[in-house]
């Protein structure tokens, strides 16, 4: 039987699912990364999460810029309106980040002053570049692994038999992406890829679109990995526990 996250996003035969299955190994490495499994069972070392979360705040600011580019490149006024709403949602997402940081005694000004990591720069600027060089479909395909992937990550966590539900320090992170509001955004992003695939020649452009999508999925996996790498001193016992 298919898992919930396999059927929840995009339509059967649509461009989103074709892109996801064309890079199945990269996609699985992203959406069920050891970092994600550590969020689920609550064993992720806190320094790994802290590093990730601060960089993710910076990531979201640049992602909002990429979405603003999607307003510029939009094919219709309706699409512009939807994207404007998506920008509002992505900036609202950062409130969760700031709540965690506040709990650690880290003020927003300090988060903003943190230098971007190579992983943050490479992922965000890659997406912006795909949008600048291409059309709205190239850009939306580069954006989709972010928006849809976290929807899938949350569903995988909810279905995880090892999930820690009591006293999980990462519960509010999980709640943010399992929330019906976020899930609806993720579904709409996958549906948009399907629709643009139809209207903008997705099949004829599949080779380049597939490589953009797979690259973004790999950049997502590296984004988690930077958290684990930053917590190296704490990692030996974590990795032993994961085996
Ligand atoms: C790196 C990354 N990818 C996706 C998301 C979900 N918007 C996020 N917050 N950060």
Automatic annotation (TrEMBL):
Gene3D superfamilies: Heme oxygenase-like (1.20.910.10). It holds the Pfam family TENA_THI-4. Its EC number is 3.5.99.2. InterPro entries: Haem_Oase-like_multi-hlx, Thiaminase-2/PQQC, Thiaminase_II, Thiamine_Salvage_TenA. Keywords: Hydrolase, Thiamine biosynthesis. Pathway: Cofactor biosynthesis; thiamine diphosphate biosynthesis. Residues 27-229 form the Thiaminase-2/PQQC domain. It catalyses: thiamine + H2O = 5-(2-hydroxyethyl)-4-methylthiazole + 4-amino-5-hydroxymethyl-2-methylpyrimidine + H(+); 4-amino-5-aminomethyl-2-methylpyrimidine + H2O = 4-amino-5-hydroxymethyl-2-methylpyrimidine + NH4(+). Belongs to the TenA family. Catalyzes an amino-pyrimidine hydrolysis reaction at the C5' of the pyrimidine moiety of thiamine compounds, a reaction that is part of a thiamine salvage pathway. PANTHER family: BIFUNCTIONAL TH2 PROTEIN (PTHR43198), SI:CH1073-67J19.1-RELATED (PTHR43198:SF2). This is Aminopyrimidine aminohydrolase. It comes from Paracraurococcus ruber. The lineage of its organism: Bacteria, Pseudomonadati, Pseudomonadota, Alphaproteobacteria, Acetobacterales.
């Amino acid at each position: 039987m298919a898992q919930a996250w396999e059927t929840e996003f995009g339509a059967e035969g649509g461009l989103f699912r074709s892109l996801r299955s064309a890079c199945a190994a990269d996609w699985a490495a992203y959406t069920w990364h050891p970092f994600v499994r550590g969020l689920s069972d609550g064993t992720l070392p806190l320094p790994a999460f802290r590093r990730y979360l601060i960089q993710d705040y910076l990531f979201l600011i640049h992602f909002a810029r990429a979405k603003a580019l999607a307003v510029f490149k939009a094919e219709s006024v309706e699409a512009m309106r939807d994207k404007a709403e998506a920008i509002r949602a992505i900036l609202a997402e950062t409130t969760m980040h700031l709540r965690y940081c506040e709990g650690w005694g880290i003020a927003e000004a300090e988060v903003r002053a943190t230098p971007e990591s190579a992983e943050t720069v490479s992922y965000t600027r890659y997406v912006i570049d795909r949008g600048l060089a291409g059309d709205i479909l190239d850009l939306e395909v580069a954006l989709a692994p972010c928006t849809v992937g976290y929807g899938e990550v949350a569903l995988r966590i909810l279905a995880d038999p090892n999930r820690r539900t009591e006293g999980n320090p990462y519960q509010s992170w999980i709640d943010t992406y399992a929330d019906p509001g976020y899930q609806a955004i993720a579904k709409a992003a996958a549906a948009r890829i399907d629709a643009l695939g139809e209207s903008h020649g997705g099949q004829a452009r599949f080779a380049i679109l597939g490589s953009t999508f797979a690259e973004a999925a790999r950049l997502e996996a590296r984004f988690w990995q930077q958290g684990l790498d930053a917590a190296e001193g704490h990692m030996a016992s974590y990795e032993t526990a994961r085996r």
